[in-house]
Amino acid sequence: MRSNREVVLFHNSKAILLLSLALTSAAFLSATESQAKRPFTVTDEIGLTHFGDEADGVQFSPDRKYFAVLARHGRLNGNVVEDSLRFYLSQDVGNFLDRSDESQPPSPIWKITRSKDTDGAISNWRWLPDSAGVAFFEHSSDGHQRLVLAEPRAKTITALTPPEENVKTFDVRDRRNYVFSVADSSTAKVPRDDDEMAEVVGTGKTLYELLFPNDSRARSLSSHRSHLWVVIDGKRFEVKQNGAPILYSEDLFLSPDGKSVVTTLPVSDIPPSWETLFAPPYGTFSGVHAGHQNIELAAFSIRRYVLINLQSGLTEILTDAPLPWQAIWGDAGYYPSWSSDGKAILLSAAFLPSDDNAPVRPCVAVVNFSSNTRDCVVMWSRPEKNLEGTWVRDARFVDGNKNRVLVKLIVIDHGKRSIEWAEYRSNGDRTWQLVAKTENDPEHTNDDLKVTIKQGLNDPPVLMASLRGNSRAIWDPNPQLKNLGMGQASVYTWKDQDGQERRGGLYKPTDFKPGQRYPLVIQTHGFSDSLFLPSGGITTAFAARALAAAGIMVLQVQDVGNCGEGTPDEGPCNASGYEIVAKRLVSKGFVDPDKIGLVGFSRTVYHVMQALTTKSSVHYRAASVTDGIMGSYFQYLLAADLDQNSGAREYVSLIGTPPFGEGLETWLKKASNFNLDKVDTPLLVVGEGPLSLLFMWEPYAGLRYLHKPVELVMLKTEEHEVTNPAERAASQGGSVDWFRFWLQGYEDPDPAKAEQYKRWRELKKLQAENEKKAATSTLWIDSAFDKARSAQVVGVRPRYLRPNRGQNGR
User: Fold this and answer.
1) How far apart are CA 759 and CA 37, in angstroms?
2) In the chain, what's the furthest Cα-to-Cα distance?
3) How far apart (Å, rounded) are the C-alpha atoms in residues 543 and 547?
4) 310 vs 459: CA distance, rounded Å
5) What is the pLDDT of residues 484-495, one digit of tens each?
6) Which CATH class is domain 486-746?
7) Contact 358, 371 (CB under 8 A)
8) Model pTM?
9) C-alpha of 324 from chain center
10) 473-516 pLDDT, tens per residue?
């Protein structure tokens, strides 16, 4: 018979055994569940529902009785982007939050669904001031935008403009008072001198106009004519000045009485002072240059703020200065807002020149029509080159009071992004004083219902609501992600060449094991640690989580050094930055040094091409570049007469000199496409439509002549950031295929891709031949130097060697 002690020991041992079995079983089940999860793919990302910009994803009606949510996802089966605008009753959501026993979130009271082949089937949406409904652009089958009004109380949609008109911009007070612009029908086809003539005069025209006269992307680069229309008390008429139409295309901000509008108009002749008065924060390229510009054809024309009387068409200049973003001061915070009495307009980004004509920064400015004054509320700060600092995001009058201004600030501190609100009040003497600063919008009290989009680096977006301390999810639009293996992303930090800390997003393979080395792809255009972005950044060419699910580590970066944007240091500095972080990941044991890839898009194509043509201790096994600048001679020539030659001037700023005379020697050394002989990396070159293909032709043609592995693809799109589902599948899916092929030796068994891999296998043979020749050449050079050293011993100097110079160079 067992003693009491033995019984206790027996039961304890049994409990420990059962606990051990339970833990082992749980671990086994967890591993089995993990293995059972299907790998995340580009197709999954295309179907992901997201809310877009958090600032625009949720909007309350002015009376706060309703709120609307815009959600968007792609559908490959119909090749469309589908938008849904969901309307909720605030009271329904408040009741749900107050009743903790209520498990079912409230449904929207009304949902509008629209689809389009590209991003934005529902766009530019906003509540009417009287909360009666939401006005937005609806897209017709012929590609036109029309203005419509959705009223949730009646659940009706009313067209405010006819479908045959292509509306470009608008602002609405109510269904009987609004203003809008209509694209000029004569720009549907860029006119030739005479279709019956045997020649076309090309002098003064861009190459894009001459080669692609009816291409819509070419037209967007060369023409932006539109006409200003207004509806007052239900009566519609065109706004003209001296009998002529006002050619217009920018945002409109209608006064409370509906009699005038604030907007921006192009300047025919830019004064020389504009080149130097508004110094840009980075580099030397400002984007503003003196001289005449064709205001009818310059798509990116330099503009200034004006006030237009809608009855007479008379125009009053509000700021005799360019827009800050056109002087390379960022693109945020330039939306004007009216005071409720209509006697002042708030410009959240404007240049107000100083009395001594010294360079100035943008400021949040109030234009007071009663006193005809322009006062600076707060000056924009000058962020550091790594984007650290405080940025003005937007501003508005508090309760429409022209003496109180609320400024929304984006604060970036050591890579962390946060929002602050600062309230300023007028002192009555044209000066303003900071009276409060908070992390929350002070116009909303703790008793107000708050609806936000909660998301993170590894957390898919969820619609959250909170009230009086209670917070609950009211909509999870992506429950399918729980069954997909996406790997884990984390913030990765390292030191750049100056010893400054840098941050990026490191996406580890789903089956990541410490101590195992993985292939690496560096993606180079932006990073956010607060958003759920499976691509890593932009949806063109990037596919971070799809690559990670396939066993490839991905690093998504924004800045890799203090690289002086717009200066000759920009290219080499970024190339060096990629090398430094790649070597860091190799030294940490994460990455196989022989399996590293590099992706460039838009601006970073220039950086990637510099990396591929610069001597480096990192050998990139594969690379891709899509629709971006290269600072090349060919692109320099393509920019002639385009946008006041601004692109050509930027290339000169990047290289340091024009490519003529002695300056050409500098270009031969620094411009990447004059150094394609140094490229030993298989390169995927992607254009987005015919114009982009022409823009990207140079590296492809050069590498073909040099018998180096290069693949050329033209996406059938005119989008820069691709949103069309089929084109996304081609762009992002093509990246996955390209890097898996070169870094993993993997070929997708899909029969539709058989020809693709047939071409790539030939490129792989070509790469092997080139590497063999390079190795043979290296052996020959080593042998030659060995013979040279032997010859020098007996006093013979081979003629292919330079003289051995001493300290004095003799």
Assistant:
1) 33
2) 117
3) 6
4) 48
5) 998 899 999 999
6) alpha beta
7) no
8) 0.86
9) 19
10) 999 999 999 999 988 999 999 999 999 999 999 999 999 999 99
